[in-house]
Structure formats: C-alpha cells, structure tokens
C-alpha cells in the first residue's frame, strides 16, 4: 500500500463507506485516487465487496498501532530566552496548562501509557510527572554539549510503533491516534525560512537549499516497521561520530536528499512549536511564564510596559552567562543573565565596583543597569561590532595597546584576583569529588611550585581585566566613521599583576608557543625581559589549571566546554615544563 491507500483505508475505518465522492472529501484526495485505491485495497484483500474492512485489514491496524511514545525534553531551549533561565521549555504554560502535560494527556486519550521522557536541563522540575502521569524519566548527562540526536539514542531500543515528540509543541487538536498505518513526520502548511524540507507532489519530504523556504517542521514523528529499524541503526551510528554532536535527531531520517518517511501536513493553526518568548506571548498573552524576572527588570529600567520589549533573540551562549538581545523603542540592548553556578564564581558587588572605577575612562560604555545582587546587567548593543581576530597582527596590536593603556592607568579597586587562591576555591566547589584527570594532584603540585618565581618577579598590582580574551575586545566604527575599541565583560577584574592578562589572552586563544611569544612581543613592543617572559609562562600554567578547575565545576553542573577544558589542563602541564626549562637555562647562563 502507498500513503493514499493507507489514508483511504483509515477513513473507511473511521466512518462507514457511503460513496466515493464523500470519501474523497473526507480524505482530501481526488475522486480518481479514491477509485484507484478502493480497487487496489479490494484486490489486496483489505476491503470486501461491500467496501468494508476485512479481518486482514483489522490485523494490519492492530500490528501497526502505536505502542509507546518518547518525549524529548533535555535541552536548554536556547531561543526561549529569558524564560529558559527560570523554567525548562517543556513546562511552559499555555492557557493554564503545561506543554508536556498536555502532550501526555493527549497520548493517554488514545491509550498510550508507555511514555519515556528524556530530560537534562532542570531535570528535577520534571520529576513530578512520574507520580502524576506514570511516565519514565531518562536522564541525559550530555545535554549541554550534544543535541537531541544523543537524547534519542538513550531510548533507541524503544523505537518501534513509536511517537517521537518534542516537548515544546502545543497541539490544539489531539495529533495522536489509536491506529496508524505508516511512518510519517509532521510538518505544517506554513512556509518557514528555517526549515530544511518541503513536501513534494508525492507527499515526500525532500531537502531544500538554505536559501529557500520550506514547510515548517513540527517535529512530531511516528515510526514503525522498516523505517523504525533504519532509524534505530542510524541513530546509533551517528552518535559514534563526533561530527554529529550538535545534530538534531531528524538527521537519522534522511536518505540522500529526502526523508525515509511520508509527510503528514497539518494546518499551521492546529499545531504551534513554541521556540521564543514572543511566540508564547502571541499564543497566550496571560501565560505565567511571561512574568519573567528579566523582562520585569528591563521594563522597569527602561520605563516601558512589557509589550514594548520585542525581537528577543539569544546570543551565542557564553562561558559564564546567558545573554540575549532585545529591541525597545527604536534601540537594541543586551541583557545579561548569570549562568549556572555563577553565584559561586563571581562577586557581583566587586564587578559593580569595577564599573564604577572605569566609568568615563574610555575602556567601555557604562552599563545602563547592573544589579550587584542578581548579576543582571543591561547594556546598549553596538551595531556592526566585531571581536578581535587572535590571528590578525593588526588587531592584536590595537588590543594590546588598549590593554597596556589600562595597566598603565594604575586604576585601583579594593579587591584582588588571587590566581592560586582561586585554584583552591574552584577545587573546593567540587565538594570532595575527585578530578576527572588522573594526574591532577601531581599537576597541581607542579603549578603551585611556580608561586615562588612569580612572587619574586611580579609587577606592581593594578586593576587587571583577568578575562582579557579576544571575544571581549569589540572593534567598531562610531557615527563619525572612526574605528573604536572597547574592552567588555569585567566580571573577574581585580587587582593583580597586569601580565596575567597576557597569559589569559593566550590560553583562551589556544595559542601555541610561537603565538604566545608573538603576543608578548606585541604587548612589550619587542622589549620583554627574559624573567618577565618566564613569569608569563608561569601565569599560563597557573591560569590553565585555574580554568581547568573552573570547567570541572561547570561540568558537574551539566555545562560542558569540550576541547577548551582539555586544552586548559594541557597548558597547566606543558607550560610548567616550559617555564621550569627556561628557568634552568637562565640559571646556567647566570641570568637569574
């Protein structure tokens, strides 16, 4: 049977056959297709002479009927800012009902009670579903670093006669049925520029270029038989390939330029995927989740009502914070919301003191708002700005000049940033858990032994940025066309040897030894003393361990930084060896 045959057979199951014209209206197929399908179904033994279901047809429905469902609810819902900082997307409320609860109730209506919910971000918020709805929770520990392809792999063995459902869907009518006859993937009749597929005349889902609009992808899928087996195999294979770490599970549905399942097209008004704050506001302007603390702060500080805040879109997720852009009364702004565990990592009162000291000094624009308790911050958005290219010597020259200008200004705050104390502090946040690195204790001992050389050669402590990395140098042109440079994100700033900033720039840029030496030359205009260079090597080792420990703490919170964390640990080990080797060489030459 083809899709049209299945559709006709299902319509006859739902209502007794009267005539072909009525059946054509109900099924949405032409009268010619209806006549052809009836002949084929009778020939194959699915319809009798009275055009009623035969026992063979009934068995077909029973064999292919849904047995279970998988709901994918592990991700951050990054586009759902600022709500995703307070509520996981599956628990958004529309008209007083949580999205995931509505999905579960609709599944129960068609007698599907075996439901696996894959959770990750804010997983504890979903625990009540076990008691209230009898679902089974499956925890993804990799949700921060990998996309929902890997979430699905956790329940791969359950895929057979199965609905696969995203948790951020609102369906006006129940999209699930007690009987299904073929595998399908749901799209809407809405044209969406972000879609990667469109429905062709054969009701196939074919790939389209990035520049073309396609059918909006709803994300609900039903899998049976051969298609379920193919998907199980493909999911397993793709998850073994790191190139697919950020892939959606739909990658497993494709064979060359099209999906292996049929299209199920629904009216856009019947099913809504809620990806953004504004989509939720449009669907239910009274939703409890719209009462976001961040939105209230923005409205209060800019003296507007919440409906004036629009065009909300997420920025690339930062290592410490989650920030988003928004538009309000003709201007664009950035709202910073502290990330997981940040209250342990950042002293917001210290940060506020730094902004007070640098105000009007030309290093960056003053925040419109900063809360020393919550860490919320609002700044103006700089149009057409770019970050420093760590491989461009011209950029490096400008940025190091600005950095040196900061250091030579001798600005002062009451607090300091103690690298070695912070190493111990970040380690304490592990709460007794061992390091993921088996030689951590030896590495830590080596790095700590560098304190003596550092203290003997440290420069005068001044206000030091600490996080002076390429991404925090913004280059742009002002209204007069002059190129400007700002140094942003002063969260970690404090009193310290200014040469720490050089080390931090190097390790964030993942520089090799040659690139490190190049940056030192640029900062010092080619006149760096040997002992100062060695001291910077020591700082690279110490800062590498510092951020490695920081990454280990964040990993325990479910936030993974991949190669960055590994490279920081390597800096601790490699630059301890480089620094001590250079010390020995200078001792032999009596230069120390």
Brief rundown of the structure:
The chain contains 20 helices and 24 strands. It is an alpha+beta fold and 592 residues long.
Structure characterization notes:
There is one protein chain. By secondary structure, the protein is of the alpha+beta class. The chain contains 20 helices and 24 strands. Strands 1, 4, 5, 6, 8, 9, 10, 11, 12 and 13 form a 10-stranded mixed β-sheet that branches. A hairpin with a 4-residue loop joins β9 and β10. α15 runs antiparallel to α19. The longest helix is centred in the last third of the chain and has 27 residues. The chain is elongated, with a radius of gyration of 30 Å. The N and C termini lie far apart (86 Å).
Mean pLDDT: 89
Number of strands: 24
Broad structural category: alpha+beta
Compute the CA-based radius of gyration: 30 Å
How would you classify the quaternary structure? single chain
Distance between the termini: 86 Å
- Measured by DSSP, the beta-strand proportion falls in 15-25%
Please summarize the sheet with the most strands. 10 strands, mixed
Shape: elongated
What percent of residues adopt helix (DSSP H or I)? 25-40%
> Spans with pLDDT under 50 lasting ≥5 residues?
none
H/I helix tally: 20
């Amino acid at each position: 049977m083809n899709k049209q045959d299945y559709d006709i057979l299902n319509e006859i199951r739902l209502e007794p056959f009267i005539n072909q014209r009525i059946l054509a209206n109900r099924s949405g197929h032409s009268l010619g297709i209806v006549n052809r399908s009836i002949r084929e179904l009778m020939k194959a033994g699915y319809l009798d002479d009275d055009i009623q279901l035969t026992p063979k047809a009934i068995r077909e429905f029973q064999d292919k009927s849904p047995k279970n469902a998988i709901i994918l609810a592990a991700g951050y819902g990054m586009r759902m800012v600022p709500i995703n900082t307070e509520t996981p997307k599956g628990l958004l409320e529309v008209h007083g009902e949580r999205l995931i609860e509505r999905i579960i109730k609709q599944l129960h209506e068609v007698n599907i009670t075996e439901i696996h919910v894959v959770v990750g971000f804010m997983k504890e918020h979903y625990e009540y579903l076990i008691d209230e709805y009898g679902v089974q929770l499956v925890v993804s520990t990799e949700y921060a670093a990998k996309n929902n392809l890997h979430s699905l792999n956790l329940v791969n063995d359950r895929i057979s006669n199965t609905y696969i459902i995203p948790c951020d869907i609102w369906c006006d009518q129940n999209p699930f049925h007690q009987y299904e006859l073929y595998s399908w993937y749901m799209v809407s009749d809405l044209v969406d520029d972000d879609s990667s597929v469109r429905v062709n005349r054969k009701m196939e889902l074919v790939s389209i270029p990035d520049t073309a609009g396609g059918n909006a992808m709803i994300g609900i899928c039903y899998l049976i038989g051969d298609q379920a087996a193919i998907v199980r195999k493909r999911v397993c294979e793709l998850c073994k390939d790191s190139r697919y770490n950020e892939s959606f599970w739909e990658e497993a549905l494709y064979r060359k330029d099209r999906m292996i399942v049929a299209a199920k097209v629904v009216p856009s008004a019947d099913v809504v995927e809620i990806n953004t704050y504004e989509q939720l506001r449009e669907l239910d302007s009274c939703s409890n989740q719209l009462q976001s603390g961040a939105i209230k702060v923005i409205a209060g500080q800019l003296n507007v009502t919440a409906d004036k805040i629009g065009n909300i879109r997420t920025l690339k997720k930062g290592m410490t914070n989650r920030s988003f852009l928004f538009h309000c009364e003709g201007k664009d702004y950035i709202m910073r919301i502290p990330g997981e565990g940040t209250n342990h990592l950042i002293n917001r009162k210290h940060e506020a003191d730094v902004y007070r000291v640098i105000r009007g000094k030309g290093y960056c624009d003053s925040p419109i708002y900063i809360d020393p308790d919550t860490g919320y911050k609002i700044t103006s958005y700089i149009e057409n700005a770019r970050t420093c290219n760590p491989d461009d010597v011209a950029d490096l020259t400008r940025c190091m000049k600005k950095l040196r200008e900061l250091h030579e200004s001798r600005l002062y705050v009451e607090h300091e940033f103690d690298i070695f104390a912070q190493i111990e502090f970040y380690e304490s946040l592990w709460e007794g858990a061992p390091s993921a690195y088996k030689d951590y204790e030896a590495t830590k001992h080596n790095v700590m032994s560098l304190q003596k050389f550092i203290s003997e050669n440290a420069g005068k402590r001044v206000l030091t940025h600490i996080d002076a990395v390429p991404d925090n140098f913004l280059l742009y042109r002002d209204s007069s066309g002059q190129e400007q440079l700002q140094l942003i994100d002063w969260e970690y700033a404090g009193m310290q040897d200014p040469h720490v900033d050089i080390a931090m720039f190097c390790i964030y840029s993942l520089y090799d030894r040659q690139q490190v030496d190049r940056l030192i030359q640029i900062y010092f205009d080619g006149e760096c003393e040997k002992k100062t260079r060695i001291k910077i090597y020591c700082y690279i080792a110490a800062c590498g361990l510092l951020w490695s420990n920081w990454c280990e703490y964040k990993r325990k919170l479910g936030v993974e930084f991949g190669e960055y964390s590994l490279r920081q640990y390597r800096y601790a080990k490699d630059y301890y060896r480089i620094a001590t080797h250079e010390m020995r060489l200078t001792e032999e030459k009596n230069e120390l």
